Amino acid sequence: MGKMIDILCSGHAACPGCIDAVSARHVLAALGPDCVAVMPPSCMAVIAGPQPFSGLRIPVYQASLESAAASACGLRRALDVRGRTETQVVVLAGDGGTYDIGLQCLSSAAERNENILYVCFDNEGYMNTGAQKSSSTPRYAKTGSTPAGKPTRKKNFTEIMAAHRVPYAATATAGFLRDLVRKVEKAKSLRGTRVLTLLIPCLDGWGVPEDQGIAVARLAVQSGMFPLYEVEDGLRYTLNDPPKSRPVRDYLMSQGRYRNLGDAQLDELQREVDADWARLEQRAQASAVQ
Amino acid sequence: MSPGNDAVLLTGNHAVAWGARLARPKVVPVYPITPQTPILELLTEFQAQGELEAEIITPESEHSVMAACIAASLGGVRVFTATASQGLMLMHELLHYASGARAPIVMANVNRTIASPWGFWPDQTDSVAQRDTGWIQFYVESAQEGLDTVLQAFRIAERVRLPVMINLDAFYVSHSLEPVRVPPQALADEYLPPYAPEHYLDPARGESWGNVVTQEMYWRHRRDIGGAMDAVPEVAAEADREWQRLSGRGWDLVERYRCEGADLVVLTMGSMCGTAREAVDELRDAGHAAGLLKVRLFRPLPAAELRRALAGVRDVLVLDRNFSPGAGGVLHQELRAALYGTAAAPRVHGALAGVGGVNVPPAKIAELAGRARSSEPLPEAVWAR
Questions:
Q1: Which domain holds residue B191?
Q2: Which ipTM value was assigned to this complex?
C-alpha cells in the first residue's frame, strides 16, 4: 500500500484494540492532508480528542448529532466559494448519527448530490453511550435497550443511499484493508455524494476479545452477514471478494451479543443472509450484463 | 428594478431580500415557510439572474438550513438565511450551536404564531422564545427598516462575532407594500466591507471547532459570549450612526416618539409601534402627555437606555404580542426586571395585546393607556384585544 502519511496520530482516545481507530487511520491516510472532517457525536468524536488536543492533523468540525451531512454541505460550499474546490470534505459518523437521527439530512444532501464523502463507522449500535440498539443493530443482537435481543432486521443503509442514485455507495471493513483503501481512493477520485459504510466490530459493545476485532470483521464478510460490494450511480452493483463461504453461526458465536441464540433463530438468520446474498448476486449479474 | 436612491414599492419580505443581496452573502441555505417564502424566492431569483453571487443550498428542513449556515460561516464566508415560526422552532437546538460557535450569521425571522393549533398570524412568541440562545435580536416596524437592519446586522454580527436575528411581523410588515429606498451597491459596500474572519476552517490553517472542553474552558467560553453581548449596544449604536451618516436613515436601538415630558409611555416592538404612534398622537391631541418607546434591539435588552428613557415617567404600558404561559408577556417581564431596584421606577402595566394576530386598533391602546393612568398596576399582564 506504499508509504502511509498518518493523519490520525498516536495518543488518540480510542479503546485498546478499537477497529474505529485502525479504520479511520487508513481512511484518512488515503484521503491525504487536503481534507476537512465533519464529525457528529460518536466514538470518532471522542477519538478526535478533547480541546486543546486533536487526534487528527486536519481541521475537524464537530457538528450536532443529527446534522453531520447538512453541516458538511455548508462547509463544502464555503470552501468552494474560497476556491478550495479540491479539498475533500469528509464526514466521519457513527451508525446512530447515520442510520437514525442523521438520515434525513443525509438523504437531502444525496438528493442534491453534494460533493462530500460520507463515511459511516458502523458498529451496529450506540456504543459511545454504552451499547444501545440503533436501526443498524441486526436481528437478535442483545444491546442495553434490547436485552432480550432486537426483534427486527438491520436497516439496509447502502441500498437506501444507492436508491438516491449517488455516484458511489460501498461497504468495506478493516478486516479486508486493501479493499477498504481501494474504495476510499475510488471515492476520492469521484465527485458528488459518496458513501462508504465500514463495519466496525465494537469490542465492548459486541462482547469481542480485545485482539479479535479484525478476526470478527473478517467473519462478518465470510459469513455473508456483511457483504463487501459497491454500487455506482445507484445501478451498477459489484460484489467484492471474498464471497460468502462460511455459516453465519461461525460469525455469531464469536460475539457475546448473540449468546443464548437458539437453533431456530440461527436458522432464521442463515435463511435471511442466504436470501440477501442471492439478491445481491442477481443485481451484480444484471449489472455485468448491462 | 435597479438600486438607487429613488423610493420603490417593496414588501417587508422583499426589502429584507434586497438588504441581503446588498450585503453580498456567499452562502444562503434556505427553506420555504409561510410567510417567509417571498424572501427565499427573491434571493433565488437574484442568484439565477446573476445578481447575487452566492451558493444557494436548499436542504430538507430548517434544521439542516441552520446546520449548513453554521458550518459555512465557520468556513469563513458571509451567510444569510430566513425563516418563520415552526422553522425557527425546529432550528432551536442549532441557534445555541451557532452562538456557541461564534458564527456571525444573519437571519430574518417573520414572526408568526406557533402551532398547535395551526395559524399564520402575526405573533412574536416564536422569536422571544429564543431569547436565551445567544442571538442578537432586532424587531422592525417597516420594510425600509428591515432592509437597513439587515446591513446593520452584518456589521454588528461580524464585529462581536455573534449571530443576529431580524424579526418582522407576519403580513403587517412581511407582506405590506411600502415605499423603500434601496441604497446603491457602492454605498452598501462602503458600509459593509468584505467578511475577513480571524479564524476559519481550512486545511492550510489547521483550526478545528467543537471538540470536548473542560468545565473551566466551557465557563470561560460562556463568559466571553456574555462579554460580546455586553458590547452589542455600543457596537449597534455605532452601526446605526454610521448608516445614518451614509444613507441619511438611522433607527436607534430604542426610539423615543413624542416622549418629551410624557407621564405615560407605551412600550412595544415591531408593527405594533405603528399603531401605537397613532394612539399617542390621539392622546396628545386630547391633551394627555403620552409617548412611545419602540424597543428595536431586544437582545441584548438595552436596559441602561430604557432606564434613562423612562426616568421621571409615571406609567409605562407594555404591549406584548407574545405569550409565555405561566409568565405572561415577555417584554413586560423583561422591562420589570430591568427597572427593579432603580430609584423612582415607573409603574409598569402589562397588556397581552395582539396575541395570535388579533387586531389592536389605536383606540384600544388609548383605552389601555387611560386605564393604566388611573389604576394601580397588576403584577401580571392582562389580556387585551
A1: 7-247
A2: 0.97
